[in-house]
Every structure is written in structure tokens, then in C-alpha cells.
Amino acid sequence: MPDYATVTLTSPSMTATFVPSAGMIGTSFAEGDLEFLGQRRGLEAYVSDGKTMGIPILYPWANRLSAPDYTVDGRVVALTAGEHGVRTDANGAPMHGVLAANPDWVVTAQADDGVTAVLAYDSPELLASFPFPHKLTQTVTLRDRTLTVETTVAPTTEIAVPLCYGYHPYLRIPGVPRDDWSLSTPTMRHLLVDERGLPTGERESRPSRTESLQGIEYDDGFDEVAAGSVFALNGGDRRIEVTFDTGYPCAQLFAPASDDLIGIEPMTAPTDALRRGGYRVATRDAPDTARFSITVY
């Protein structure tokens, strides 16, 4: 695998590493030798096969689509597995958009505690799967023990851009067994899914709660997440908070039994919204900015 250039942000107590030329993925959020991001199969598998790890962006849609096509304003867009960045899950559903490990991010500003990278979403390759020209900007800052990721979608034509993307921070508490972790979640609404991981249309309210992760698995979607909501992973004397600061009214929780990690995923729209609707849009006159943050205690 090529030796990808990294950007490492520093604060007095933490470091965070991102790789602009591999999809602007976050590969580390650490305190010395203590790593708080799930590494899973590592950067090489992400670059070669789109296998997620760390903090990847899922763009322009997060999670699955229920069919290999979608319609926006009467225009039908067909998706083909293996072409124009489209990857599929085991059931053939288009999965996690088309930007996995995309090499075209350009760093436009960099400091010890922050980096900004821009992707021009206007190439024929990208527009074949998502025909909405725009500029995608990601600004990452590390202040003390808080890592903040801000994303702006700015259309470059009069065509509005559907906002169905998300991020997938994989979190872990080093040195503490998964069975000793607990998860605190805010009040939100549970979106029930079928065996393929797609929403059934059934919904149920879910009050805020704290629960042990012992014997618990998650691959669940939620909406009605209020701005400023906090999800927290606790274990030993450690606590990791993920705050949905603004622009993320939906969430996905992913906690497989086979891995000592949990994904707490900020989403701009529910799974399959690009096909079903229920998303907001960015326009040339009104670009959209969303922000989430991760704090380690």
C-alpha cells in the first residue's frame, strides 16, 4: 500500500490523525499510547475494499439504499456495483456512498490544532452516481480533549444537493473489556429495520437511557435526535462523549459482538432517505453546515 501522507493534530493531552489522500479519514484519536478509535481492519482495507475504520465519512449517502437507483425531482439515477465508487453489502444494497478512500481531497489550511480539506464534487466519475455539483469542505479541530468535525456542502450550480450523508466514528475504551462498558443515549425515536438492515417504516419512541453493553449488539437507526444531544460511552474511569452539535437529526448505533468497539454515527437523514425522502437540501444561496464532536475524559 502507498505511504499516505497524514495530518496529525495536537493538543496538550491528545493527538488526532487524518489522511486527506485516503478519503480524509480519521485514523487515530489518542492519548499517548491509548487509542480511542476502533482500528478494525486498518487503513489498507479501507483503501482497497472500503472496509470502514476510525472516522470515515459516508457520502453522499450513509448506510444502505433499498435498491440500486433513486429519483430526485423526477430524475432517475441508476447505480451499478463496482462502478463510479459504488460498493454494495452482502445483499447487493448500495452502501456508504462513493467517497471511500477518495484521493482528491485538497488541504487548504493547516495548523497544529486544525486542518481544512476540500473536495470538488464535480468530476464525471462522481456525478455519475450523485449528479449534484458542489464543494464539500471538512474542517477538523482539536482543542484540549475535544475533536470537532464540521462539514459544509456548498452547491456550485442552481441544482440543490440532497443531504443524506453521515460519519461513522468507531469508539473504544482501551484497557477495559467491552462487557464492562455502558452506553448512555438521549431521547430519540427508534426506526425499526428488517433483516437487510433497511427501515420497515415502524417507529417507536425511546427515552434517554444508560445500559450495559454486556451481551448487547446494535445495528439500529434513530431519528428525532435534538441538536446538542450527547451519546456517551463509559468504562472504568473513562468516558467518551459524542455530541451531535448541529445538522445531525439522525443516528445509527453499531456494536457487533465480534469487535470491541461501538459506532456512534451522526447522520443528516435516516437510512435510505435518498430513495424514500425525508432529507433537507443545500442550495447555492444556502449552503449547509453540520457539526459533531468527540470528547475523551
From TrEMBL:
<dbReference type="Pfam" id="PF01263">
    <property type="entry name" value="Aldose_epim"/>
</dbReference>
<dbReference type="InterPro" id="IPR014718">
    <property type="entry name" value="GH-type_carb-bd"/>
</dbReference>
<dbReference type="InterPro" id="IPR011013">
    <property type="entry name" value="Gal_mutarotase_sf_dom"/>
</dbReference>
<dbReference type="InterPro" id="IPR008183">
    <property type="entry name" value="Aldose_1/G6P_1-epimerase"/>
</dbReference>
<protein>
    <submittedName>
        <fullName>Aldose 1-epimerase</fullName>
    </submittedName>
</protein>
